[in-house]
Amino acid sequence: MHAWVIWLIAAGILLVLEMMTLTFYLLWISVGAGAAALVAWIAPDAFLLQVITGCVIALVLTAFTKPLAKRLRASKGYEDAGTELVGKQGVVVEAIEPGQYGIVKIGGDTWSATSTQQIGKDELVRVMKRGSSIIEVERWEEFI
């Protein structure tokens, strides 16, 4: 198998993982792997150049976009899509044990969820807090 194919597969896997985490860190590494695939296609024997290109691209994108993202979040009128989840009702799809993750369905989306209490399958929950891809929930009855 050619090196550019391996880099391209790595870029695709990282892109899919990025879509699941929504952090942008894996996106930049994916773009770096894509750049390494391009270098591998042009210069197949220059493995070190491929690795360096991928690393430099990922580091530069991370370094330059982090301040831009911070400025965007601080700008007037910006609303984080994740904050609208707080207070919504969801249904537990996979039971939540304290200290372990379960799965909660809110609307049409499913989220990994934690709680300080044991919550069984099919119970209603309220979203208390949202991290990057994990939400913190409490049993719904406690708020009624």
Question: How does this structure look, described?
Answer:
The protein is α+β, with helices and mostly antiparallel strands. It has 2 domains: 3-76, no CATH class; 88-139, OB fold (Dihydrolipoamide Acetyltransferase, E2P), CATH 2.40.50. The protein contains 3 helices and 5 strands. A 5-stranded mixed β-barrel has the order 1-2-3-5-4. A hairpin with a 3-residue loop joins strand 4 and strand 5 (134-139). The mean pLDDT is 87.
List the helices and strands and how they pair.
Blueprint (H helix, E strand, L loop, with lengths): L2 H19 L3 H18 L4 H28 L14 E6 L7 E5 L2 E6 L9 E7 L3 E6 L5
Parallel strand pairs: 3-5
Antiparallel strand pairs: 1-2, 1-4, 2-3, 4-5
Subcellular location: Membrane
Keywords: Membrane, Transmembrane, Transmembrane helix
InterPro entries: Membrane_assoc_protease (IPR052165), NA-bd_OB-fold (IPR012340), NfeD-like_C (IPR002810)
For the structure shown, list the relevant keywords.
5-stranded mixed beta barrel; OB fold (Dihydrolipoamide Acetyltransferase, E2P); membrane; elongated; 144 residues
